[in-house]
Amino acid sequence: MVVVHFGRPWHHASGSSAERTGRPSEIRRLIFTAMEAASFLPDPARRPAQLAAFGRLLDVLDRLRQECPWDKKQTLQSLRHLTIEETYEISDAILRDDLPELKKELGDVMLHLVFYARIAAEKGAFDIADVLNAQCEKLIARHPHIYGDVQADDEETVKRNWEQLKLKEKGNKGVLSGVPTSLPALVKAMRIQEKARGAGFDWEEASQVWEKVQEELAEFGTEYGGGELNTNTTPDLARAERAAAEFGDLLFSLVNFARFAGINPEEALERTNRKFISRFNYLETASAADGHSLADLSLAQMDVYWEQAKQQARQLNAEK
């Protein structure tokens, strides 16, 4: 047994002297594990403050809903696009690893969630207590390995059980019925594949998925003659339609391989977007500082600034 007391680990003496001293590496591992786990445990002493803060948010919203002209006018529909915007701002803060900004954005989304529950309560549908209790019941029901006697020793088993329990809860609805139709296509592709995997429909090896990527790439290339675009003045609409279909298949297979490789494709693409934006901003700023306009620069001259931007990024990464 390992006990952490005032930040210092102590191994309880039990068993023979040989048992206590014969496995120092194992003892150190247990001590380190306990200290690491303790460092991430929530402080129970903070629970009253957390509950009070949540109650304060409810009180503030109640008053705003009654007295503020803007808050009084809001509906479920009017808040929807604002919530989507706030959710993307949370995503941005996470990608920047900006915890102070994340705290602020989480507060904004928390307000929206409470606001939706308040409006629903006004309609006599449900209130925030109903929302939270329903969520707790769902979590308990979908974690039988924690709250029941089901065995699940790895993440894959937990995810598979989750999807099977979710399907059972939804009755006769299909496995993919829970994927929101309005999800961005890249995110939707990953969720479709995850749900199919939960039902047992998936590739066995990553190498099989990579072969599929190569197959789809070849089929897409066939539609463009190895990369040559159609330069005719009259567009070949049928060919363009086939190429679009093959490109979609290629993207889907790449998302599948990313999943096997443990890569979130949406996050990976967004990081590349940010990298491109950063380098292009440098190109604009640096060329302007040298008295040049982008419109007057050749591609070769732009490439010089682009390489400078890449070198600057490498230096910054090396300093971190």
The coarse overall form would be globular
Total of domains: 4
Helix content: over 70%
Read across the widest sheet, the strand sequence of neighbours is: 1-2
CATH superfamily label of the largest domain: MazG-like
Low-confidence region ranges: 1-25
- Radius of gyration over C-alpha positions, nearest whole angstrom: 27 Å
- Which range does the strand content fall in? under 5%
Total number of β-strand segments? Answer: 2
Secondary-structure class: mainly alpha
Summarize the biggest pleated sheet.
2 strands, antiparallel
Architecture (CATH level 2) name of the largest domain:
Orthogonal Bundle
H/E element order: EEHHHHHHHHHHHHHH
What this model shows, in words?
This protein is an all-alpha fold. The protein folds into 4 domains: 40 residues, no CATH class; 94 residues, Helix Hairpins (Orthogonal Bundle); 87 residues, MazG-like (Helix Hairpins, Orthogonal Bundle); 53 residues, no CATH class. 71% of the residues lie in helices and 2% in strands. The chain is built from 14 helices and 2 strands. A two-stranded antiparallel ribbon has the order 1-2. The longest helix is centred in the last third of the chain and has 25 residues. It is globular and about 60 Å long. The N terminus is likely disordered.
